[in-house]
Amino acid sequence: MELCTSVPLQHLARSNRLHELPKAPPREPIGRSSRTLAKHFLPRTANDRSDNYYSVLSNTRVCVVLAPRVSCLMWSRLLSPRVVGRSGVCWRSLYTMQLKTSDFRSLFTEGLNGLVEIFEKNNHELRIAGGAVRDLLSGKRPEDVDFATTATPEEMKRMFQVAGIRMINNKGEKHGTITARLHNENFESGETSPSTPMFLGLDGTLYDYFKGYEDLKNRKVRFVGSAEQRIQEDYLRILRYFRFYGRVALEPDDHDPETLTAIKENGRGLAAISGERIWVELKKMVVGNHAAHLLELMYKLELAQYIET
């Protein structure tokens, strides 16, 4: 579900051909499936499979008191054959639809609107991404808001400087973080992977590359691709799975058997996670639906020994 990992800043700006980044496919009629994604995102030649062709993921995060946290990601690397091939995900079908409401625009603060203007002025696309899309489709107001963009952190840094936006916390660059201040809000840029592979255009168009909307309608919780690989990228995703299950699933025991097997076989990875991070996930899970069932299931999967403090 939440697939967020950071990398050093020096690894972010690999692409020197961002102008060749494939454009998003044309919008399909509402409710129709499309096979056009491969045409727009598959490499044109064997040489184009390199990292130089696929631009990197990038992230911009806004932390505001009494306002959502806002992040910015880019989708092209997630969809590259190098990444998707390893996970065994079939991503050649793009589903699009138009939201009937524009309520999501209420998430846009003055600072966020200013951020959107800067990206649009520099011809970079923005889409809402990650768990915020899932929450909006479920009729919930997101606590965290992610965006997808075609800009790398280095490009964002230049855009902020040209716009006269003050840069702060410069020491964060070595860890892949750039912080700018706009309308009394802090904006951090770095690299993550989107938590949910669905994107929402600012015009209300939903872009679904991995049948996430279908799973959401059916109240299913799944990892994207190989559950084992996603877990091994970040073992905290084990607990996030249970947390999201309590938010999404209607029935207490409607788990995918392969998912539970992957969780049990990789549960020992939780031993390396700090108690603070574990508690953040647990306290959200116990106030959700099916809490008693999920706690019992965690014991059956032999996870208790790794999370008890």
From TrEMBL:
Domain Poly A polymerase head: 126-188
Top-level taxonomy: Eukaryota, Metazoa, Chordata, Craniata, Vertebrata
Keyword Phosphoprotein found: no
Superkingdom, natural source: Eukaryota
Protein known as: Uncharacterized protein
Alphabetized Gene3D superfamilies for the sequence: Beta Polymerase, domain 2, cca-adding enzyme, domain 2
One Gene Ontology cellular component: mitochondrion
GO MF annotation, one: metal ion binding
A single BP term in Gene Ontology: tRNA 3'-terminal CCA addition
Organism: Pleuronectes platessa (European plaice)
Sorted UniProt keywords: Magnesium, Metal-binding, Nucleotide-binding, Nucleotidyltransferase, RNA-binding, Transferase, tRNA processing
Pfam family, one: PolyA_pol
Record-annotated tRNA nucleotidyltransferase/poly(A) polymerase RNA and SrmB- binding domain positions: 256-307
Cofactor section: Mg(2+)
